[in-house]
Amino acid sequence: MEKPIDFDLIRNARFPEGVLGTQMIEGMNRSHARLTEWGFSHISEFGQTVLDVGCGGGAALKKLAERFPNAQLFGCDVSPLAIQSAEELNAENVSAGKMSFHCGGVSKLPFPNGFFDSVFSVESLYFWPDPEKDLAEILRVLKPGGRFMTVLEMVGGSMSERHAEIARRLEMFCPAPEELRELLTRSGFSVTALTHDTQNGWLCGVGEKRA
Ligand SMILES: C[S@@+](CC[C@H](N)C(=O)[O-])C[C@H]1O[C@@H](n2cnc3c(N)ncnc32)[C@H](O)[C@@H]1O
Asked: Which residues of 179-199 are buried (b: 16+ CB within 10 A; e: fewer)?
């Protein structure tokens, strides 16, 4: 039988804090690894400057640093605990000046226009205050021709009852594939990929900033 949903723990997916937040961050670092790799497989070139929005405990950036030791990697997240955990996990890269973190939300990114070659986000879009405007903010910090990739495993229209209950209780925005395409388009992106892996229940959208 499936375990009952532990909402005290699960709400830390939106804003990790305290002991349960640490538990959630460690769990996400492990359990999002395959989904993250799948998302990465949609990006042919990351470039030199890369931002992870809603970086949580920083496992995705650690992987990227291993693959691209010369890239400048950045992470941002609203949760101070997430940022602290990401900095600890990536301590070597942070002290080598290859990676840095910012505690703050997607709605106001502390970077100049056209700074990043690529931006990605794993399992975070659900919680953004205004997805259309927030995606436009990501567009702002991308270079012309730069790409944004997002992956989600709670997909509107095809969720399990368990996921649907979590989405309701946490007031999550879980777009269906076509809804994600429209959202990216409305925010100003040219959608270059939209993949729905129905076996795993994963959704990946990639948008390009027009040159
Ligand atoms: C489900 S976790 C995913 C974390 C990480 N990307 C991973 O895959 O392990 C969602 C993350 O988004 C962050 N988040 C929520 N709202 C945010 C916002 N408005 N701007 C940036 N990050 C946000 C949360 O603090 C949390 O760390």
From this structure: bbbebbeebbbeebebebeee
Written as six digits, the tokens of 24 are: 């959630």
Residue 66: domain span: 7-208
Count of CB atoms situated within 10 Å of the CB of 14: 17
152, part of any domain: yes
End-to-end CA distance of the chain: give it in Å, rounded.
52
Task: Please identify, by atom number, the ligand 1 atom nearest to the C-alpha of residue 128.
Answer: 19
Q: Quick check: is 2 in a domain?
A: no
Can you give the pTM of this predicted structure? 0.98
If one counts the domains in the chain, the total is 1
Provide the CATH number for the domain around residue 180: 3.40.50.150
Give the distance (Å) from ligand 1 centre to CA of residue 14.
6
Query: pLDDT 10s per residue in the chain (211 long)?
Result: 778 899 999 999 999 999 999 999 999 999 999 999 999 999 999 999 999 999 999 999 999 999 999 999 999 999 999 999 999 999 999 999 999 999 999 999 999 999 999 999 999 999 999 999 999 999 999 999 999 999 999 999 999 999 999 999 999 999 999 999 999 999 999 999 999 999 999 999 999 999 8
Output the six-digit token pair for 174: 């879980």
Nearest CA to ligand 1 atom 4: 56
Q: Is 177 helix (H, G, I), strand (E, B) or coil?
A: helix
Is 29 a member of any domain? yes
